[in-house]
Structure prediction request, 185 residues.
Amino acid sequence: MDAATACYLRLGVARTTANDIAQEAGISRATLYRRYGSHEAIFLAVLTHESELMSDDARAHLDSLAVTDPVSRMLEGMMFAISQIRSRPVHAAVFGGESAAWAAGRAIRMEALRRIGEVGVRPLVSGALADGTLSERDVGDLVDWILRILISYAAVPGAGDRDPDEIRRQLTAWFLPALAVRLSR
Prediction:
């Protein structure tokens, strides 16, 4: 994974080949495939690892804010993730430039990212789950929606690369009211 990460940062995700990763790791391409299966499997492992680290940092960040309202915590968690996706080298390489569409398409289907998202979201909606306001399917839909929002801001930031205040305004105007309605049924 270290070799793949180094290649993604040096060459870009779209230009990195299995040969590049094998050379960086000092192994043959055949050994690379035997150990990891495919180039895509390596990509997914690197993205999962980096996303788990970011998730740990997000939890620590949210704890430092002392925000207890689930809807506000969701907003602050999303704002943190959007800022981190752009500033962390691997995430920036994965979701930036020419590889953004390719990476976004794979990331949105990653079960590992959904599990990471669910670990972050579930505590915020536990009351609504317990009282039947939300179902397990609803939690899955919410995680999917959040991942799609985060990936879209990361991969396609928009005209002028929207600043954090503009992203906060959009999420507050459109995402949070929809979430609040679902949590209060």
Notes: The chain has a mean pLDDT of 88. The domain at 45-183 is CATH 1.10.357 (Tetracycline Repressor; domain 2).
